[in-house]
């Protein structure tokens, strides 16, 4: 199946239009890693909990990051490791 020049030109033009429109329609909220500092995510989990980083320290860190609460939460089945998680 051969494509003549006009068919190939139409296919190329439609492809370019689709790419440009999809990039143009993206909003800032969908870009990865960008969010307003005043609006924290619903839940944020980070550092593994240890003897030095327990529930009290985790809660303090979360309050400093503008979250309402924080605690060490276990992950896995059964829970084998705990991480400091902040909640809105």
From TrEMBL:
Keywords: Antimicrobial, Disulfide bond, Fungicide, Plant defense, Signal. Coiled coil: none annotated. Residues 43-88 form the Defensin-like domain. GO terms for biological process: defense response to fungus; killing of cells of another organism. Residues 1-25 form the signal peptide. Belongs to the DEFL family. This is Defensin-like domain-containing protein. It comes from Brassica campestris. The lineage of its organism: Eukaryota, Viridiplantae, Streptophyta, Embryophyta, Tracheophyta.
């Amino acid at each position: 199946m051969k494509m003549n020049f006009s068919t190939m030109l139409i296919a190329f033009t439609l492809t370019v239009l689709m790419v440009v429109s999809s990039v143009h329609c993206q909003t800032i909220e969908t870009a990865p890693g960008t969010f307003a500092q005043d609006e924290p995510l619903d839940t944020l989990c980070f550092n593994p909990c240890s003897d030095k980083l327990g529930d009290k320290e985790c809660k303090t860190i979360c309050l400093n990051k503008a979250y309402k609460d924080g605690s060490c939460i276990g992950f896995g089945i059964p829970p084998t490791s705990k991480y400091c998680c902040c909640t809105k």
